[in-house]
Amino acid sequence: MKMLGLFLARVGPLREMVGGSVMWLNGAYRGELLDVGCGSGQFLANMRARGWNVLGVEPDGEAVRVAREHFGLTVSQGTLEEVDLREGTFDAVTLNHVIEHVLDPVGILRSCRRVLKPGGLLVVVTPNPAGLGARFFGEGWLHWDPPRHLFLLSPQNLGEAAQRAGLQVVRLWTVSRAARDTWQASRILRRHGVLRGGIPRNVPMRLRLEGWLFWAVEYALCTSRPCGEEIVMIATKRDAAE
């Protein structure tokens, strides 16, 4: 199984899926991990099984209950700014589809920087408004999602926000792993003007095939340009003395 996993991790599109499952953190590294907006805790439970010491922050009370009772996780209810965490505590902080929901993107990046250890890593994943899906679907693109999404930052804007927050960008790129689901949901949204129940799972075969084709096209086009459905940014906190 380990050899199969190593093989699949080398296949382009599957490599994106494998990387995303651990938020592109080094699988051989272990340390203190904070997931901001951790939801019901599935990601933290997976990372705990890999040897990380994990902590979550989540404003939704029901999600916090599930994380605590179902997974036995330590999760604080509230926003990162509201929760009392010591400065310089964590080796890694993750923001998975969170920054687009906050009123002050630079502010939350500063808060992440504060709780990181010097040399610690921040990983941010967010929808890409400059991606192929947004260009193709226009106003019907799934991830505009008003009023839940307050700010959608382009790759350049996200990098600039990190710099303003005092972070150093290590790597910033886009991935296409969400292209299939985005295509299917955006097609339904554009046709009906509403998407009930979130991203659909049972869709007609034709729409499913279209989604796979869009994923393949987007992956091929976006290997050399930042047009994937999601932006991934890895940034680090440097010691003030550096």
In short:
With 242 residues, the chain is an alpha/beta fold.
Can you offer a commentary on this structure?
The protein has helices spanning 2-8, 12-21, 42-49, 61-71, 105-115, 132-137, 155-164, 179-192, 205-222, and strands at 32-36, 53-58, 75-77, 90-96, 116-127, 168-175, 230-236. The model is unreliable at 1-10 (pLDDT under 50). It is built from 9 helices and 7 strands, in the order H-H-E-H-E-H-E-E-H-E-H-H-E-H-H-E. The termini are far apart. It is globular and about 50 Å long. The protein has a single domain, classed as Rossmann fold. The chain is an alpha/beta fold and 242 residues long. Helices cover 39% and strands 20% of the residues. Helix 8 crosses helix 9 (205-222). It has a 7-stranded mixed beta sheet with strand order 3-2-1-4-5-7-6, sandwiched between helices. InterPro entries: SAM-dependent_MTases_sf. This is Class I SAM-dependent methyltransferase.
